[in-house]
Specification:
Two copies of one chain form a homodimer. By secondary structure, chain A is an alpha+beta fold. Chain A contains six helices and three strands. Chain A has a single domain, classed as Arc Repressor Mutant, subunit A (Orthogonal Bundle). The model of chain A has no long low-confidence stretch (mean pLDDT about 85). The first copy, chain A, binds a DNA duplex through helix 4.
DNA sequence: GAAATCGTCAACCAGTTGGTTGAATAACGA
DNA sequence: TCGTTATTCAACCAACTGGTTGACGATTTC
C-alpha cells in the first residue's frame, strides 16, 4: 500500500509522464505515437512508460510488433482518496480539470 | 502550475513525508517533536520539512527558539483535482482515508 | 530472403535525493 | 555568563533519475 502510493506519486511528479497520461485519456496509443510529440529519444519515452506501468497507471499490450498503451485510471483512486482526505475539498470541478490538462500537453 | 504539481507529487512520493503530514493533521508541531518517532537524524527531518515547505504543503513559523510546523492542505487541492479528473471517482469515503492513514504512521 | 519498422536493452553520464556527521547559530534558563 | 535546547548548515556519500547512444530481437513488408 505504502509502496503503491510511493510509485504513483513519484510517477506523477514528472511533467513528461503527466503529459503522456493526458494523451492516453483520448485513446490508446502505440509507443512510437506516444513519443512523437516529445523532443526526446524513443528510449527515454520507453523508460517513462515502463515506470508508469510499474506504478499501475497504464497497461501495455503487444499486438504484432506494436505495443499499445492504455490508461488505467483506477491506480489513481487510492492516492486520490489519500489527498482528498487531507483537504476535504469540494467535489471536483470539471472545468478546473480541463484547464489543468490544457497547460500540460506537449508541443 | 506544472512546477507546483511537480513539487507536490514529488513531496508526496516519500513515506516519511506522508507520515509527517499525517501527524500534522492532528495538530501543529515543533520540528523536534516531528522528528521524535522517526529513526533518523534531526537534520534529515529538517530537510524533509524544507521540501514540504517549498511544495507549499506545510508552513513553518518560528516563535522563540521553536519552529512550528502547520499543515497547509490547500496545496493539495489542484493536484487532487488533477487526479480526480482522470478517474471520475465517487466522492471520498472517509473510512478509506482513515484506513490509509493508519498504515502510514511511524513507530 | 532482405530491408524496414517497433520497441527494448546495456552502458554511460550529469544532476538530484535521502541519508550521515560535525560545526554553527539562536534563544532560553539558571 | 554559561550551559542547554532547538534548528540549520556544510560537506560528504551511495543510490536513483532522466537523459543519451548504439546494438539488438521481433515482426512485417517487399
Amino acid at each position: 500500500m505504502t509502496i503503491r502510493l510511493d510509485l504513483v506519486f513519484a510517477a506523477l511528479s514528472d511533467p513528461t509522464r503527466r503529459a503522456i497520461l493526458t494523451m492516453l485519456l483520448e485513446d490508446d496509443m502505440a509507443v512510437t505515437d506516444v513519443a512523437e510529440p516529445f523532443d526526446m529519444s524513443l528510449a527515454a519515452i520507453s523508460k517513462h512508460l515502463g515506470l508508469l506501468t510499474r506504478a499501475g497507471l497504464i497497461s501495455q499490450e503487444k499486438r504484432g510488433r506494436v505495443k499499445w498503451c492504455k490508461l488505467e485510471p483506477d491506480a489513481m483512486r487510492e492516492p486520490s482518496v489519500w489527498m482528498q482526505g487531507f483537504g476535504q475539498f469540494e467535489p471536483v470541478n470539471l472545468d478546473d480539470f480541463e484547464r489543468f490538462l490544457a497547460a500540460e500537453l506537449p508541443g
